[in-house]
Structures are given as C-alpha cells and as structure tokens.
Amino acid sequence: MISEQAKQRMRELASRYPMARSAVMPSLHIAQQEEGYITPEGLRAVAEAINLTVADVESVATFYTMYYQKPQGKKIINVCTSISCYLRNCDSLVSHLEKRLGIKRGETTADGNYTLNTVECIASCSSAPALQVNGEFYENLTQESADALIDQLDRELGVEKRV
Amino acid sequence: MPEMIITKNLDVPGIDKLDVYRQNGGYEALAKALREYQPDDIIELIKTSGLRGRGGAGFPTGMKWSFLAKNDKPRYLCCNADESEPGTCKDRVLMEQIPHRLVEGVIITSYACKVHTAFIYVRGELAKAGREVERAVDEAYAAGLLGKNILGSDFSLDVIVHRGAGAYICGEESALMESLEGRRGYPRLKPPFPAVVGLYGGPTVINNCETLATVPAIIAGGGDWYASFGTEKSKGTRIFCLSGQVKKPGNYELPLGVPLSTLIYDEQYGGGILDDRKLKAIIPGGSSTFILSPDKVDTPLDYESIAAAGSMLGSGGVIVISDATCIVGAILRMTEFYRDESCGKCTPCREGTFWMTEILERLEHGHGHLKDVDLLMDICDNLAGKSFCPLGDAATSSITSGIRQFREEFEYHARYGCCMVSSNEKKQQQPTTASEPVGTH
Ligand SMILES: Cc1cc2nc3c(=O)[nH]c(=O)nc-3n(C[C@H](O)[C@H](O)[C@H](O)COP(=O)(O)O)c2cc1C
Ligand code: SF4
Ligand code: FES
C-alpha cells in the first residue's frame, strides 16, 4: 500500500524541482520505503504524482540497482567485493557469511530475514573489507566481527540461536 | 606537514552541526564573499589559487566557471557527490563528518557563478552522507544561509539534495544531469558541454564534492595562500584515499607533489606494505587509472608527475598491491566492475567489457590460452577512444598497463592453468602470515 501521505510527498517533490519529471527518483525511493520494493502499485503512484506513464517510470526504475524488483530480506547485507576490499580478503568474508546464513550471494533466507548481496565499491575502501546492513556501514571486518554482527542482527530479529 | 585545509577540524566533536561549525569559523568565508567580492572577483581568486577538479579529470576550477555561457537561461550548479570509483572514499567522509563545509562551498560557488538553484547529487548507497547533507541544508535554510537574501545580501539560492539509486555511470557529468532530470543515466553527446547546454538546457557547472568543499578555505585564506601549497602546476592539497595492502590504510590530506613513497611508507601515513611484503604495483587514482610499477614509487603525487609516469591522479584513490597478490585475479576483479557498470548504450563498451571479463575469467581459472593475452590487448584497442564516454576507456586501463608490466603472469596462467604467485609461494615455503595471500589458488 502506498499511503496518501506518501503520495502527497511525491506531489510536493514534483513541484520542488524546476521540472516535475526530476521527482521520479526521489518518488521511487518513497514508494520503495512504503512497500520494501517497487511494486506495480508503487509505479502507478509515482506515475500519477508526476504525471508520467507507468511504462516511463518503470524504465527509470529498472535502470537503477537500488530499486528492488522483488521483495528483500528484513536485513539486506551488501558486501563490497571491489578491488580494495578484494585486496583485503573480502571473498573469504563472503564465503563465511554464506555459510553462516546458509544462503548464497544474491539469495534471501527462507524465513525472509536476510538477503546477502555482493556489491561494488561502497566508498569504504580505506576500511576494507566493508559491508552495509540496510545502508549502514560496518568496516575493517574480520570473521569474528562479522559473526558478532550476525549475532546482534539475530537478536534484533528475535531469531533463535542457530545450530 | 602544513596545516590541513580540506580535512581541517574534521575531528572536532559536533562539527557536523551548524553551531559548532560556526564556532570554528564556519560560514565566515561565505559572509566575506558576499560582503567583499563581486561574483567575477571570486572566479579570479579561484583561478589564482590554482584549484583543479578533484573528481577525476583535474580540470582548472576557475576556468570551468568562467566558461559558463552568457545567455538569459537559468544557470545551475551540480555538486557531484556520486562517489563510486573503486578505491575512492573521501567525499563520503566529508559529507558524513563536515557537511556544512560542502554546503558553504556550494553557496559561494553559486554566488560566483550567478546560480540560483543548486543540486547536490549524493550517491544513493551513502545513506548517512545523504542524511547529513540534507540535515545541513535544512539547518542552513533555518539560519538564513540559504533561501532568499542570504545573510541580508541580495543573493538568493535554493539547494536541492538529490539521491542517486545505484549506477556508477551517473558520476559521469552528462549522465548525472540525465539522472537529475528523471531519466535513465545514459551519457549525452558532447559538445555541447554542460557550461553551454546543461541541466534543463541551462548553462551548468558540475564540480566534485571535494572541489566545492575546498572553496571556503580559499576565500578565507586567499588565492595566493592556497597556491603556496603544492607544486607549480598542481597547487594546494587533496585527500588521498590509501587502500589495499598497506599497514595503515586511510584518508590522508597531503600537499600535491609529495612522493608516493611517503604516502605508502611513512609512519604517519601508510606505514609500509602489509605483512612486510614487497610492493608489486600501485594504482594511483582509482581503478580507472593505469597501474604503475614499483620503480615509480618515488613519483611525486601531482597531476604532471603522475601523468609523466604513465598514469593519472584521477579521483585520489591510491590502491597498493603487494607481491602476495596475483595480478590476473586483481585485474579480473576490476574488469568485472566495468562490465557490471557499463550502461549498455554503445556496443564497444557493452560487448568489450563482457568479453574482457570472460577471457580474464578463463585465464584466472586455468582454462585460458596463450593467445588470450594478445586477444585482450586487441579488445582494449577496440574500446579505448572508440566508446561513447570515458567509462569505456577506463575499463581498459588496468588490462593494458597490467599486461605490459606483468605479461609473464598472464602467460603462466595460460600455460600452467594456475597462478604464478601461489606457485612461488609454495616453492619458497614462506612462514604463514596472519592474512592469507589474496587471489591465489
Ligand atoms: C564513468 C565516470 C564516472 C565518474 N564518476 C565521478 C564521481 O563519482 N564523482 C565525481 O566527482 N566525478 C566523477 N566523474 C567525473 C565527472 O564526469 C566530472 O568530470 C567531475 O565531476 C567534474 O568535477 P571536478 O572538475 O570538480 O573534478 C566520473 C567520470 C566518468 C567518465
Ligand atoms: S562507454 Fe560504456 S558507459 Fe559509456 S556510454 Fe558507452 S556503454 Fe555506456
Ligand atoms: S573497494 Fe570495497 S569499499 Fe571501495
């Protein structure tokens, strides 16, 4: 559901920019906040608020990787695997997280709690290896600190201790 | 070392808030600019300072501003805070820790360029940076530093913080404008240049976040003062993002012209190579720049010297590679980035980055052939200078420079189906170090 409040914010954005069309990206961000990913309803709401066709909005939404095309886990873990993190062993960090969460990169756990992605440079190169959980940074990771992080996330999610 | 300029006061507690920023001299440069200078005077001052763009190309900033077309269309300023070049992590830190320095730079630059609407395009993934900049802009509006009649002057400015959504290409200035206009981020044909026909068809200045955040210090200290740092042609200081296999990676602000070796080995900075290994290669300006060999380690870090050594100062991301690393694996990793981030608009780049990755992958995993090495060089030749935007060229930098310097490693992979680095490692029976060598198998 896209709330009336969200639609109002989109309309306000459309008048904030010199051209209404510029509000398409921030409005898609709002739609995604509401529903967790970009749904047909989200596309429609954005199109209506800015006065574009749905197809037009969709063509923008599919260009940018942060607009998710399908539901994501509650905690989205994005591990950087670009060069500076690679030189600091990010690949073994990814394998470790895959084992710990029981999923491969690009997958979501069956309980819908975690999505594990590998992503490109997240501007944390001097603190490699680095990852983001729902956009927040965790840096200079070791297997131990990654485990501690998952423990903490498990507690936040109320997940029972894994065997 | 001289007093820091762009990172000055970065660690003062609360400097992200307006009141603390002001207690430390913040927005005094803006007041001075509005009180003492006409817009054109500021452009002259920036020319005197010698400030050059910190986004990649190093174009002289004052000159860029003076190129703005004189017509009656509205002018725009875009701050490029889309930081995403692998190896680069300075704009994020500025935005997270001292966002008002950027906002102040945006206001002064807008005044100098007679702009009344400015945009700060913050990379979507940098959630905290985006939040901080938005908050700083709100605080500035509330304090009369933005909006109508700034600080009682007759200058008015609106600033809109725009968040990206995951696309490296949107850091390219024409793609950034497309994205701001609400479209897919495909680069535009140049000319016309943004200074003539830019955002919404108006004359537009696009500068990097660090470039703009340097402006207040130049107004405060003067053009000659800023020009007293650095070398004759590369003036001032900049942030070098030191990453990779060094003991102390980090963001270090240095005057231009300090040797690479100081940044990498000095105890105040990098402190030497990780695990006391040997230096194998340096990428001096982000993953889009050519790889330098260790004999270039004494090169001064200024635009001219690094160019003479065969690379570019680029975005300031200095990536250090030690002899524990297989160059084939490292270059594969860098090439995957360009394959994934190619916007797909033109064939040489879309197809070329795909095939280069395929070939590097088969070499890396032991299924390659000797002739693949020359094939890679061929593909690079068909990409560089023949693609629509500089991303295509960037994708070839590490491959061509890497093969030129480390051809025997590529050929070893083709001949023996395995990695020269790990084979040497086994022969030498090195004592096991805390961290495993990377990219060896
Ligand atoms: C593929 C590509 C990506 C780029 N990414 C960035 C970026 O993330 N940040 C940036 O400031 N400049 C980036 N640039 C350079 C910009 O096009 C532009 O030159 C720069 O923002 C100008 O600012 P400056 O003169 O202050 O350096 C990129 C260029 C290319 C070709
Ligand atoms: S060179 Fe690559 S990134 Fe640039 S326009 Fe062509 S396909 Fe797009
Ligand atoms: S390479 Fe991983 S954060 Fe930049």
Task: Give structural notes.
The complex is a heterodimer of chains A (163) and B (441). With 163 residues, chain A is of the alpha+beta class. Chain A has two domains: 58 residues, Arc Repressor Mutant, subunit A (Orthogonal Bundle), CATH 1.10.10; 83 residues, Glutaredoxin (3-Layer(aba) Sandwich), CATH 3.40.30. Helix content of chain A is 46%, strand content 12%. Chain A contains seven helices and five strands; from the N terminus they run H-H-H-H-E-H-H-E-E-E-E-H. In chain A, a hairpin with a 2-residue loop joins strand 4 and strand 5. In chain A, helix 1 packs antiparallel against helix 2. The radius of gyration of chain A is 18 Å and the shape is elongated. Chain A starts with a helix and ends in a 6-residue tail after the last helix. The model of chain A has no long low-confidence stretch (mean pLDDT 96). Chain B has 441 residues and is of the alpha/beta class. Chain B folds into three domains: 210 residues, NADH-ubiquinone oxidoreductase 51kDa subunit (Rossmann fold); 86 residues, Ubiquitin-like (UB roll) (Roll); 99 residues, Up-down Bundle (de novo design (two linked rop proteins)), CATH 1.20.1440. Chain B has a four-stranded parallel β-sheet with strand order 3-2-1-4, sandwiched between helices. In chain B, helix 2 packs parallel to helix 6 and helix 6 crosses helix 9. The longest helix of chain B has 27 residues. The radius of gyration of chain B is 23 Å and the shape is globular. The two termini of chain B are 42 Å apart. About 2% of the residues of chain B have low confidence. Chains A and B meet through helix 2 and helix 5 of A and strand 3, strand 5, strand 8 and helix 13 of B.
